[in-house]
Every structure is written in structure tokens, then in C-alpha cells.
Amino acid sequence: MAYKWENGKIKRVSLPKKVSKKNKELLEKMAEEEVNYDEIFSFLNKLNIKIYDAAEYNKIK
Amino acid sequence: MMRLNIIKLNKIDKVTFLTYFKDEIQNNREYELIKKLVSDCNKGKNTIYILEIDNKKTAFIGLSFDRINDYPSLSVEYLFVIKSLRGKKLQKFYNKKISEILLAFIIEEIIPKIKEYVSIKYLALYPDMQNDNLTEYYLSLLPNAFKLKENKETWILLKV
User: Fold this and answer.
1) Domain extent at residue A37
2) Yes or no: is domain B4-159 CATH 3.40.630.30?
3) What's the pTM value of the predicted model, to 2 decimals?
């Protein structure tokens, strides 16, 4: 789901549940891809980001 | 060194949230979209992750589950970066933009955790206003991302 703005109103837009034959083939092909995100986003390690849920975060604030 | 935190939210005080960001929201359209995102979060339709840099909230992303042609997917409902940092490459963050940091974190940290329990095949983004520049920006940011056009809507998909 995502949002789109149409005629001054917000609409939720879903991913297509059925796609064309061409797109189906594309999805099948790409689903087999292996991507090394560790390498691509290696800068993240240098940033040392910490994750909290809201309750946990409020305790340390 | 700057402190970066990501805070996961399932319930939000809408007034406090909107007041916090009010000076960093571009226009009324953006304000209404954020309001809707927060309302949907409070109804359990999405989860919001806020990025905080040195105690200042700078960006957030709303995520929900969806499917594309039966492939389970994680959908970016909305990605917001404060006006003053939007589009800027930050030297202190290795010349990365805030949106890039947030998306990389979702791909590297959140998705693998979800995948320990349920399958996800794609991360999906719907470029706001179907803007071509934004579409190209996401494609340049996310290696192996591809554009899928169906029913006159363009989506950016990334195998995860």
C-alpha cells in the first residue's frame, strides 16, 4: 500500500495483484536475483545506528 | 560522533507528531499525507520508523505488507525527510542522503529480521506523484531495483 493524491483527496494504492505476462516474467526473473546488500550498504556499519521500540526509547530518554 | 537512532512506532500521538514536524513540512498536501499515514499507523495498518540524529527527528518511513502477483512484499507507504535536509548529501554521513540511510537501514536491518519469520520477496516503492525524477532517484539509489508499470501506475521494486 502507498498513498496517492487525486483531485485533492488521498487514496491508498495497492500493488497490482495480477500483472501482465511481461511483468510476470520480469518478477519471476528478478525473484531469483541474489544481491549483496552488505557490500552495497557497507556505510551503515560506520554509522552505528541503534534501533528501539517506542517503550524502550521512552525509558532511556 | 553523531548519534543515530531509529525508533519503531505502532501508536502515535497525532497532534504532537504533526506539531513536531510542522515547520519542516513542505505544503498542505504533504501535511495531509502525513496525517493519513499517522492515522493508519494508529489503526494498525502500518508501522512507522523515525530516524533521529542527535535527538532531532529528521525523517520517517511508513511500512506495510502487500503482495504483487502473489509475491509477498514490504511496501513503503510514505517516506518523509525534513525540508531542511531534503535532497542533501551529508558529508558527516559519507555523502549519503537521509532517505538513502533510512532505506538502507530497512533493507539491511529490518527486512532480514522479518524474513526470519515470514517470507518477503520484494520491497516496493510508489514514487510520490509518480514523479519521473523521483523514480530515477530511487532507481539510482537502489542497485538492482527495477520499474514495473501496471494499470498506469509505476512502482519501483527491489528483490530483498
Assistant:
1) 2-60
2) yes
3) 0.94
